[in-house]
Structures are given as C-alpha cells and as structure tokens.
C-alpha cells in the first residue's frame, strides 16, 4: 500500500492478457493465461499474488457458501472467455481479405480492399497507409451490404497484396484473395 | 455506464478557453489534485475530446484518457488516472465478495461497503484515516477500492449518503460508473 509521494504518479503494472492490474486477474476469466504472463514478465509480483498462502487468505475471507458461488461464477466466466476467444480465432482463420480491381472507366481502375478489420487492423489507418505508400487517393467507403471497404485509386491490386503481406504480419498469405471485378461492366 | 464495448468516434481538439474551464472544474471537484495538476494537465498541452455513445465525453491528452463526463454531470476520473494518483480522491472500500459483481458491471450495493471487509468514512478499523473521517453526501464522486487490493476498481457517484448507508445497510450505494474491464477501460486510442 505504498502511498504515492506527492512528487509523481504511481506506476501501476497492467496485465498483458486481460489489461487489468494483476491483482484483479482472478476476476477476469483468463486467470491461467494471466498467471503465465505475470510469471514471465513480473516474477516478483507473481510470487506475491499466486503464492499458496495468498490464495488461501483470499478464500478464507468468504463464507463457504459464497466461495462455492464465486467459484461457479468464475468457471462460467472462464468458459465464456474461452469460447469467445475460440470464436475469434475461428473467424480469423476463415475470414478473408479481398482485393478487388474495379474498372471505373475503360482504362481507369480503382482497387477495393475488404476484410482487413477481421485481423485487428484499423481500416482508417490502413487507408492512410495505402495512400501514403502509393501516393494516391485512398479512402474508407461504406458498401451497400453493410461494413466498410478501402478504396484506392488506380490499379494497384498486386502492389497492395505485397504491401499488406509485408506490413501487416497478422494477415496470413492464404487469406488474401485477389479478384478482378468484371460484373460491374456487364451490369452497367 | 460502459457495460458494452465502445467504439470511439470522432476526436476533436478542445478550445483553450474550454480547456481552462475544464481544468478549473477538475480542481474544484478534486482539490487534492492541486499539486499534480500541472503533471496531469499541463497548461500548454492540447486536450482532446472523444465523443462516446450516450453523450459521454472523454477528455484525453496524448491518447491517455484522463476524465470523462456524462452531459453536464460530475466530471469523473478515468481509472488509469486514479491508479496513478490514488490519494487524491475520496475513497471507499468494498469487501472481497463484492468485487466480482462490481467487475461485471453491477450497481454497487450498500452491504458491500458496510460489511467488515468494507470501509466507509470514520471506520474504527481504519487507523490512518485512509478513507476519510467526514461523512459523504449523496452525489459525491467516490473511488472504490477493494479489500486486499491495492488499486481502485470502480469510480462512481454516491447514491446514498454514507451516514444513511451505515444506518440502513441496504439498497444501492453507488450509481453505475466506470469499472475495471468495462468498455471505457478497454477502449483503444491511437
């Protein structure tokens, strides 16, 4: 309980897994992972919070009945967190980034990129990056089916493919599709 | 207030006059912050306003969240700020059993504060006066700490005076505010 001296702010370590201060990890639902993380990064804190006597002390503060309930609750929470993570991972595995070349006016093209948001990327930032890299207009536009896509001026599908793979390591190569949109011409 | 995950929308710069007003208001609400205000909110630095759903505005400085405010209600500190300057806020403590409810976004109930593990102002077991001596009125901003933990886990507005709480020992104690792990906590800036 060291009081912060009036001189400066108190530094608080936050868990890299659940983002809470480590002492609250036990309520986060990802206790196992948090514990491992803490052991790796802050061993001295790990021994403080996860020692046998600390756990025992925590337990003794509650009545048996409340303990049981808390445990049940914690289990439920953990299960929920696990399924949520599994789902996110699955989505990451199945979702695709689509790079589409759209013909705008005979020899003019725009390139549309969809699906980057599934890989934890901020598409607004990506659009900015594309624009900077290729020195063209690049914007985030809403698509009729809902959601957003990045529209880059010019035929850049191959370059964008390379750029995405080089810069955003979280996107696996197999999940990027490069297609040419010809339907638009036929329809219009 | 922030039970759901948030998506921050527009970020805009705060006018320097508005910034001065905010600063004055913060000092008025939290006089104890006075010695630190220049570190938290340097006069020259550009404060930014992030609009959140439900008319909540969040003030950030260099992408570090500092305070948030719902319409014109009391201006509340973000928990990261509370963690940095724990001594500058009025604090209460809840018992261990209540932590998990608070962290899942429940309204704070009085028994969590009145039970042996909890601390209200003027508690006999609180030797150093960590939790204050004066009784608090409803409507005051409090930071909630937890039994056996160092850091605060909740920020909110009192719904019931502490004196009444000690008498009644029932009912809602604190309006839903900002708790560890909520949408505001998880919000990413960049």
From TrEMBL, chain A:
<dbReference type="GO" id="GO:0005840">
    <property type="term" value="C:ribosome"/>
</dbReference>
<dbReference type="GO" id="GO:1990904">
    <property type="term" value="C:ribonucleoprotein complex"/>
</dbReference>
<dbReference type="InterPro" id="IPR046447">
    <property type="entry name" value="DENR_C"/>
</dbReference>
<dbReference type="GO" id="GO:0003743">
    <property type="term" value="F:translation initiation factor activity"/>
</dbReference>
<dbReference type="InterPro" id="IPR036877">
    <property type="entry name" value="SUI1_dom_sf"/>
</dbReference>
<keyword id="KW-0963">Cytoplasm</keyword>
<dbReference type="GO" id="GO:0005737">
    <property type="term" value="C:cytoplasm"/>
</dbReference>
<dbReference type="GO" id="GO:0002188">
    <property type="term" value="P:translation reinitiation"/>
</dbReference>
<dbReference type="InterPro" id="IPR001950">
    <property type="entry name" value="SUI1"/>
</dbReference>
<keyword id="KW-0687">Ribonucleoprotein</keyword>
<feature type="domain" description="SUI1">
    <location>
        <begin position="97"/>
        <end position="168"/>
    </location>
</feature>
<dbReference type="InterPro" id="IPR005873">
    <property type="entry name" value="DENR_eukaryotes"/>
</dbReference>
<comment type="similarity">
    <text>Belongs to the DENR family.</text>
</comment>
<keyword id="KW-0689">Ribosomal protein</keyword>
<protein>
    <recommendedName>
        <fullName>Translation machinery-associated protein 22</fullName>
    </recommendedName>
</protein>
<dbReference type="InterPro" id="IPR048517">
    <property type="entry name" value="DENR_N"/>
</dbReference>
<dbReference type="Pfam" id="PF21023">
    <property type="entry name" value="DENR_N"/>
</dbReference>
<dbReference type="GO" id="GO:0001731">
    <property type="term" value="P:formation of translation preinitiation complex"/>
</dbReference>
<dbReference type="InterPro" id="IPR050318">
    <property type="entry name" value="DENR/SUI1_TIF"/>
</dbReference>
<dbReference type="GO" id="GO:0003729">
    <property type="term" value="F:mRNA binding"/>
</dbReference>
<comment type="subunit">
    <text>Interacts with the 40S ribosomal subunit.</text>
</comment>
<dbReference type="Pfam" id="PF01253">
    <property type="entry name" value="SUI1"/>
</dbReference>
UniProtKB/TrEMBL annotation, chain B:
<dbReference type="InterPro" id="IPR015947">
    <property type="entry name" value="PUA-like_sf"/>
</dbReference>
<dbReference type="InterPro" id="IPR004521">
    <property type="entry name" value="Uncharacterised_CHP00451"/>
</dbReference>
<dbReference type="GO" id="GO:0001731">
    <property type="term" value="P:formation of translation preinitiation complex"/>
</dbReference>
<comment type="function">
    <text>Involved in translation.</text>
</comment>
<comment type="similarity">
    <text>Belongs to the TMA20 family.</text>
</comment>
<dbReference type="InterPro" id="IPR002478">
    <property type="entry name" value="PUA"/>
</dbReference>
<protein>
    <recommendedName>
        <fullName>Translation machinery-associated protein 20</fullName>
    </recommendedName>
</protein>
<dbReference type="Pfam" id="PF17832">
    <property type="entry name" value="Pre-PUA"/>
</dbReference>
<dbReference type="GO" id="GO:0005737">
    <property type="term" value="C:cytoplasm"/>
</dbReference>
<dbReference type="GO" id="GO:0003723">
    <property type="term" value="F:RNA binding"/>
</dbReference>
<dbReference type="InterPro" id="IPR041366">
    <property type="entry name" value="Pre-PUA"/>
</dbReference>
<keyword id="KW-0963">Cytoplasm</keyword>
<dbReference type="InterPro" id="IPR016437">
    <property type="entry name" value="MCT-1/Tma20"/>
</dbReference>
<dbReference type="Pfam" id="PF01472">
    <property type="entry name" value="PUA"/>
</dbReference>
<feature type="domain" description="PUA">
    <location>
        <begin position="90"/>
        <end position="181"/>
    </location>
</feature>
